[in-house]
Design goal:
Number of domains: 2
Mean pLDDT: 88
Number of strands: 3
CATH architecture of the largest domain: Up-down Bundle
Strand content: under 5%
CATH superfamily of the largest domain: GntR ligand-binding domain-like
CATH class of the largest domain: Mainly Alpha
Oligomer: single chain
CATH topology of the largest domain: Four Helix Bundle (Hemerythrin (Met), subunit A)
């Protein structure tokens, strides 16, 4: 007798089920598999994840606390739409954090971390026209903030990461933005490779500001 193929979103063992469900749904929201404004039906989420309804409800409450979904007072849960003002605020913070991360990387990263950043850039270049581009960007930033050597900065970045990744997926959908973004990552890596802290900071902050402009054009239509 053939076993029923497992759903690609099915949970595994070990971490609490609610945390696994939250991670699955968070990734789906960030990757725009669930789009802003979309109604999330508990029964369908249970089928997708293989989790119980109580676990799904707990996961949705966790995502609501993170600002990724909104509860409609008994009428269900929807993927949250960020207003233009909220998105601008996220980008303002992100520009400062990423600029600081690039500067600190220049000042503190060792040779091995510099090599890892160049390898991350190569992975990003290889993934630039594929569905893996968001994951490749995330790997680049992971190396960047690790090399910055400031745990509190890394903690602040993680605090807004889900919203940043969601916005990043939106901006990359803008025609031509993917190629522009890759060129900006190359500039950041180039200035870091030259240990030019001030230029690296400007390049990283400028990348975020240009992404913000692309996002605003998309939202305003």
């Amino acid at each position: 007798m053939n076993a029923t193929p497992a759903s690609p979103m099915a949970v595994t063992r070990h971490p609490p089920i609610r945390d696994q469900v939250a991670a699955i749904l968070r990734t789906a929201i960030v990757n725009l598999d669930f789009e802003p404004g979309q109604l999330l039906v508990e029964r369908e989420l249970c089928e997708l994840t293989g989790a119980s309804r109580p676990s799904v409800r707990e996961a949705l409450r966790q995502l609501e606390a993170e600002g990724l979904v909104d509860s409609l007072n008994g009428r269900g849960t929807i993927v949250r739409r960020l207003s233009i003002e909220e998105a601008k605020s996220v980008y303002e913070v992100r520009a400062e954090l990423e600029g600081l991360g690039a500067r600190l990387f220049c000042e503190r990263a060792d040779d091995a971390q510099h090599i890892r950043l160049q390898e991350a850039l190569q992975r990003l270049e290889a993934a630039a026209t594929s569905d893996d581009v968001l994951a490749a960007q995330q790997q680049f930033y992971q190396v960047l903030f690790e090399g910055a050597g400031n745990p509190f900065l890394d903690q602040m970045v993680q605090g807004i990461q889900s919203r940043v990744a969601q916005l990043r997926a939106v901006t990359l959908a803008v025609p031509g933005r993917g190629a522009e973004s890759l060129a900006e990552f190359r500039e950041i890596a180039s200035e870091i490779g030259k240990r030019n802290a001030a230029a690296a900071q400007r390049a990283a902050s400028g990348h975020v500001k240009r992404a913000a402009k692309a996002m605003i054009r998309t939202i305003e239509g």
